[in-house]
């Protein structure tokens, strides 16, 4: 009867299908303002697919790209399975060990009745340690939900940055095409002047070199634009016909610089990584208590035994107890203590790094906003006036065609640098949003960012010749 009751109890401990995803989606949607779905073969999956097709049918925007990634990125979907693992471990922590049935038949060599021994033993020490074990898994489950939420935020930020980079590369490609057209016109004029004997041969070679460099830069820009588009496809989880989307408008214009007061404290308060580490510290604390307790009483079983000998049955209780004579859990306790201290030090290190990241993001945002504003309000209007004045002088035959083309090339180069500054600003803006949403932006590894700065070849090409 006891075994049947226990079996009924265990059968009722099923693993919930939701696995905490409701809390994850609520947290993510609250911080991002966008929908998060776990695709698990339900009728809702078709609705998700239709939503993706509707978004791809229109020119792609940053918000649309992020939403597609949140609905369709397979690595993000794989991350959600961490919730199922953590949920199952929590359920497992609430289960008793299975009873052990033991049967020993004894056959007499000289004949006679067979001896039989039946016993059943249940490990009951688990019943007393179950609250500690469940406390460990509950804290780990909460930490898993925070980590999955953080993965959602990271994927959204990566997708938004990739979108801004794709836009910047498309605008850069347009600029390179304009430069190539301008150098082609300059080269054609130089050939005519050389045939007339009005310029030196070295001047013609300079024009040819500038045009060749512009063509090379154009080819590189085409490749970079294609790569940035494929990177965005990868983040959105698109392939096949779905990759034939059209990119939305150009990079957004500068937004008003929001208040950056108390940025460090806001980042600390909202950071999911710190919250997850806190939960892990709780789990490790419970684990330390569990390890100490089980070291003193490793195993204790209680059961019953029935024995038949010469046709007579004897029944009685059975007790099994592991004596901790040699292994009292010293090593396990030392490991648990070290892991707890490591988690505590990691928490402190993460907090320090988060504060530094907040200061870097603030400085980067202010600097890039100032640079883009300067290009927009000072450099570009000045280059426009120079081109206009040079055109007037050209019409008055006071300057030659080369001076006009140089003025136009310099105007295009100023526009290119404005795109670079604007792109850097929107990357910094994404880092700020990510920081306030609860994550630590990657601010230390600049090599991970796509470089839109002019190459040494650009610098060399713009110094010499016309």
Account of the 3D structure:
- A hairpin with an 8-residue loop joins strand 1 and strand 2 (115-123).
- The chain is elongated.
- It has a four-stranded antiparallel beta sheet.
- The chain is 68% helix and 8% strand.
- The protein is built from twelve helices and four strands.
- Helix 4 packs across helix 6, helix 6 packs antiparallel against helix 7 (201-236) and helix 6 runs antiparallel to helix 11 (401-437).
- It is α+β, with helices and mostly antiparallel strands and 466 residues long.
Q: Helical proportion?
A: 55-70%
Low-pLDDT sequence parts: 1-12, 446-466
Tally the helices: what do you get?
A: 12
Largest sheet strand order = 1-2-3-4
Largest sheet: 4 strands, antiparallel
Number of strands: 4
Q: Could you say which structural class the secondary elements and strand pairing correspond to?
A: alpha+beta
Note the beta-strand portion: 5-15%
How far do the termini sit from each other?
98 Å
Tell me the series of helices and strands, N- to C-terminal: HHHHHEEHHHHEEHHH
Summarize model confidence as the mean pLDDT.
Answer: 83
Shape: elongated
Q: From the alpha-carbon coordinates, what is the Rg to the nearest angstrom?
A: 35 Å
Concise account of the structure shown:
By secondary structure, this protein is α+β, with helices and mostly antiparallel strands.
């Amino acid at each position: 009867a006891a075994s049947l009751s226990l079996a009924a109890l265990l059968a009722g401990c099923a693993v919930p299908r939701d696995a905490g995803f409701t809390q994850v989606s609520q947290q993510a949607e609250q911080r991002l303002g966008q929908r998060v779905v776990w695709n698990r073969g339900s009728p809702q999956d078709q609705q998700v697919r239709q939503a993706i097709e509707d978004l791809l049918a229109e020119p792609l925007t940053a918000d649309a790209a992020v939403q597609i990634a949140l609905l369709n990125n397979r690595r993000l979907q794989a991350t959600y399975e961490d919730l199922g693992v953590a949920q199952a471990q929590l359920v497992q922590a609430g289960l008793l060990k299975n009873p052990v049935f033991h049967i020993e038949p004894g056959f007499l060599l000289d004949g006679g009745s067979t001896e039989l021994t039946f016993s059943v033993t249940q490990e009951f020490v688990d019943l007393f340690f179950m609250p500690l074990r469940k406390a460990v898994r509950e804290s780990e489950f909460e930490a898993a939900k925070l980590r999955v939420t953080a993965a959602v935020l990271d994927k959204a930020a990566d997708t938004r940055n990739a979108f801004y980079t794709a836009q910047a590369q498309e605008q850069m490609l347009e600029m390179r095409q304009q430069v190539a057209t301008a150098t082609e016109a300059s080269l054609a004029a130089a050939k005519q002047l050389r045939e007339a004997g009005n310029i030196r041969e070295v001047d013609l070679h300079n024009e040819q070199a500038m045009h060749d460099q512009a063509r090379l830069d154009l080819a590189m820009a085409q490749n970079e634009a294609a790569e940035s588009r494929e990177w965005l496809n990868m983040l959105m989880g698109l392939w096949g016909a779905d990759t034939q989307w059209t990119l939305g408008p150009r990079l957004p214009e500068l937004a008003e610089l929001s208040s950056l007061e108390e940025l460090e404290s806001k980042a600390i308060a909202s950071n999911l990584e710190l919250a997850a580490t806190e939960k892990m510290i709780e789990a490790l604390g419970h684990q330390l208590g569990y390890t100490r307790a089980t070291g003193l009483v490793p195993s204790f079983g209680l059961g019953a035994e029935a024995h038949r000998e010469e046709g007579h049955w004897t029944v009685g209780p059975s007790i099994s107890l592991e004596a901790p004579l040699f292994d009292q859990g010293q090593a396990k306790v030392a490991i648990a203590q070290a892991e707890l201290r490591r988690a505590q030090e990691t928490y402190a290190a993460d907090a320090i790094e988060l504060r530094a990241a907040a200061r870097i993001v603030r400085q980067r945002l202010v600097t890039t906003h100032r640079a883009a504003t300067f290009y927009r309000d000072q450099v570009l209007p000045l280059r426009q006036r120079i081109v206009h004045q040079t055109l007037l002088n050209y019409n008055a035959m006071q300057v030659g065609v080369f001076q006009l083309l140089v003025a136009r090339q310099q105007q295009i180069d100023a526009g290119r640098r404005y795109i670079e500054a604007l792109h850097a600003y929107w990357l910094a803006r994404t880092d700020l949003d990510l920081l306030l949403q609860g994550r630590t932006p990657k601010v230390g590894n600049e090599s991970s960012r796509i470089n839109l700065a002019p190459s040494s070849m650009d610098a060399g090409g713009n110094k010499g010749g016309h």
